[in-house]
């Protein structure tokens, strides 16, 4: 059984440590791994490297209109890439909102 130091109770999805613990099954979802390891998974703006807040993600989804207010315009407005906008709109990222 894997023991985690309580000082490291935060576990980031898709990190080397996660893959080691989960046996590389990250793509299939958490499958209760967070409960099994008794850790809290950070999401959205809780992650220190996040450039957006939950409020901004909601704004992006509401503002988007194909050919009127597109990905390129949103990307320049929020200072992120078009690929990031696409992932937000297709709910590949920021799924919890």
Rg from Cα:
16 Å
- Major sheet details: 2 strands, parallel
For the largest beta sheet, what order do the strands appear in spatially?
A: 1-2
Residue ranges: pLDDT <50 for 5 or more in a row? none
Descriptive overview:
The protein has 97 residues and is mainly alpha-helical. The protein folds into 2 domains: 6-42, no CATH class; 54-89, no CATH class. It has helices at 16-22, 33-37, 54-63, 71-78, 82-89, and strands spanning 10-11, 40-41. Strands 1-2 form a two-stranded parallel sheet. Helix 4 (71-78) packs across helix 5. The protein is elongated. The model has no long low-confidence stretch (mean pLDDT 77).
What's the topology here?
Elements: E1 10-11, H1 16-22, H2 33-37, E2 40-41, H3 54-63, H4 71-78, H5 82-89
Parallel strand pairs: 1-2
Helix pairs in contact: 4-5
What is the structure about, briefly put?
The protein has helices at residues 16-22, 33-37, 54-63, 71-78, 82-89, and strands at residues 10-11, 40-41. It has 97 residues and is mainly alpha-helical.
Keywords:
97 residues; mainly alpha; two-stranded parallel ribbon; 39% helix; 4% strand
């Amino acid at each position: 059984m894997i023991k985690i130091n309580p000082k490291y109770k935060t576990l980031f999805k898709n990190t080397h440590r996660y893959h080691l613990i989960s046996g590389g099954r990250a793509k299939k979802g958490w499958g209760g791994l967070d409960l099994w390891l008794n850790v809290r998974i950070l999401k959205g703006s809780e992650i220190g490297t996040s450039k957006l807040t939950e409020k901004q993600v909601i704004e992006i989804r509401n503002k988007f209109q194909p050919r009127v207010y597109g990905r390129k315009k949103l990307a320049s407005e929020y200072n992120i890439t078009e690929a990031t906008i696409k992932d937000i709109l297709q709910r590949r990222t920021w799924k919890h909102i």
